Amino acid sequence: MDAILLQILNGLDKGSAYALIALGLTLIFGTLGVVNFAHGALFMIGAFCAVTLSRLLSVSFVTIDETRKDFLGNPLKVETPYVESWFGPEVGAAIIDWSVPLAILFSIPIMALVGLVMERGLIKHFYKRPHADQILVTFGLAIVLQEIIKYFYGANPIPTPAPAAFAGSFDFGALVGMDPNVIIYPYWRIVYFMFAALIVGAVFAFLRFTTFGMVVRAGMADRETVGLLGIDIDRRFTFMFALAAVVAGLAGVMYAPINSPNYHMGMDFLVLSFVVVVVGGMGSLPGAVAAGFLLGILESFASMAQVVALFPGINQIIIYLVAIVILLTRPRGLMGRKGVMES
Amino acid sequence: MLGLNKKDTSLFLLVLALVVFAPLLLNPFPEGSELAQFNAGYPDLMQRFLIFGIFAVGFNILFGLTGYLSFGHAAFLGVGSYAGVWMMKLLTMNVIPAIFMSVVFAGLFSLLVGYISLRRSGIYFSILTLAFAQMSFSLAYSVLTPITNGETGLQLALNDPRVLGVSQVDGSIPAANFFGIAMRDSFELSMGGWLFTFNAGYYLCAVVMMVAFYVAIRIFRSPFGMMLRAVKSNQQRMNFTGLNSKPYTLAAFVISGMYAGLAGGLMVAMDPLAGAERMQWTASGEVVLMTILGGAGTLIGPVLGAGFIKYCENIFSKINDNILYDWFAGLPEGLADFLVFVIHPFIGKGWHLTLGIMFMLIVIFLPGGIMEGFERIGRLFKRKPSSGESVSAKTSTTPAE
């Protein structure tokens, strides 16, 4: 029982990332009808927003402390981050410590801007082109974005720690009344899951309960008619693209402490997220989210020692295997709508 | 000639001439001159031109003719490579069995993948092939280590059996050969300042390439090729006429998989090792790039695309800041610094950035690739023909989807 619970928990963080990226992909596909291979790159840019902010916050100036000596006997050079000198040492240190959560605020305008520029500058011209062209051009864009990040940040992963308050692990088992010390779970992962749930909830609420969201949903169902009603649906869809970029970016920001950001993390996630979208059903938002969590959890079950002993290598391929089976038995995916991508 | 019409014959002869005289043509700059670094006439690079040319020609048979965009073709190349190395380990260092078995195994594997993947079309097909390729890649890295030697890659060893040949010669691994002609044998011709290298391995690749190219032309011009084009233009209508298109697409898939295996086998023949990274999806992406860049659906486009990308890869990765400063030596220092600063991100390790930008520009502005570019330039210089002719010229270069 606790082994099962542990695997479910372990699957949640990856599943959350899959779900968020797949949600964005589906939003873009459902609204604009564009297959966006650069979506993984947006996730990566989000993670590097966190890196950038934590670097910006720790920009320091050097003062020489004559009273203390370093091990060579020279006067000690003390590096003080500007933030600490402005806000006082304690508040400053706290700000630096909380750089990843702060990066959420920092990344929203950046990601929205990136999304807008991408949509207006490039994707707009590809609405009418075949899907293969869309795949190819966004694939090229993904390479470009990835290489730009590599140029500025190098090829090595950059550790970006979570705030000290969430650093350790806690005893999840004891919390829900099971034997202590059975299920130890890192704080940050539970934070990540809650964050993902919040974002998913917010996006769904936005689409469901606002007029804007209603128009967007109408546009997804029948773009032409909505346009004929005198609504500028293109502008709203552009907004949705920016929103999808923000969602992917936020997923990346919060993922930074779990896995140190590197320039190819986007590509790694992209392939899997596409599989997730296809399993969930192209164009279905709940399907994307459900399939994201489902596949994340399945992956973590497949990496249990007992399972791997039974089917060696299953943990590496389970997601693809599931995708193949689903595509062959239920071509529309788990919750796919009729008429999407069928011609 | 050989059952080709006049136009195709001249195309074939042109390619033949280019391939035969490549060691001369690709070395236009004398040895030791400033420009010698732009030479491409050394065996290793020329072999890669041809091998990736074969790969792209095969990919084009699937993508260019049927419009099915496979994102997993590198898996077949990888399977072919592994099969080839195993032949060399078990049988003999002669490259013929290695290449033959590469094609066979890649064909069998593509039959399996194609049979399943072709049940879906469009993006679903792309995702399915991608899933298969990634699965093979992960398995080659982990569970199949006894066959693939995991991360290290599969290599020859001194104690391999090689039942038809010898395990070792004078304490070293025997060289890959074609009935006694070692692949790395070269004949060097020095003429004035020029040095030309004629490599045995290159000419083996050349022969294979010409055969592969000839077969591709025949496929393009056959009723079978016409059927594949019909699948691309409207599969539904094909089905309505009571024709089952699946055997045709599956045949195209297997043929292109065998081409990929052939390329993998040749890679092994030139350099007997195989690694899992050859199967990664970025490698599949590369062949897609080559085909698109050259012009999908055209005969010679993929070959040009493969050559162009491999050449640029080679040149761009070689250039560094010092070379740039040499070029700009005549300019004022500040300007030279600025130019180097601007160009720096695109060269050396930044080659992929250049590739990505180039690729995007091609897809955006020139969906028909280099071949469409030629066509447009040709039209600029030609007097405007009668309207009927221009329409037919246009349809023949319609980019693939």
Compact overview of the structure:
The complex is a heterodimer of chains A (343) and B (401). Chain A is 68% helix and 7% strand. With 343 residues, chain A is mostly helical.
Structure description:
The complex is a heterodimer of chains A (343) and B (401). By secondary structure, chain A is mainly alpha-helical. Chain A is 68% helix and 7% strand. Chain A starts with a helix and ends in a 14-residue tail after the last helix. Chain B is mainly alpha-helical. Chain B has a single domain, classed as Orthogonal Bundle (ABC transporter involved in vitamin B12 uptake, BtuC), CATH 1.10.3470. Helices cover 65% and strands 5% of the residues of chain B. Chain B has 18 helices and six strands. Chain B has a two-stranded antiparallel sheet. A two-stranded antiparallel ribbon of chain B has the order 2-3. The radius of gyration of chain B is 22 Å and the shape is globular. In chain B, 45% of the residues are buried. The interface between A and B is large, with 40 and 42 residues.
Reported CATH architecture of chain A? Orthogonal Bundle
Per DSSP E runs of 2 or more residues, the count of β-strands of chain B stands at: 6
Strand content of chain B: under 5%
Helix and strand run of chain B: HHHHHHHEEEEEHHHHEHHHHHHH
Structural class of chain A: mainly alpha
Strand arrangement within the widest β-sheet of chain B reads 1-6
Task: Give the N-terminus to C-terminus distance of chain B in angstroms.
Answer: 32 Å
Largest binding interface between chains: A-B, 40 and 42 residues
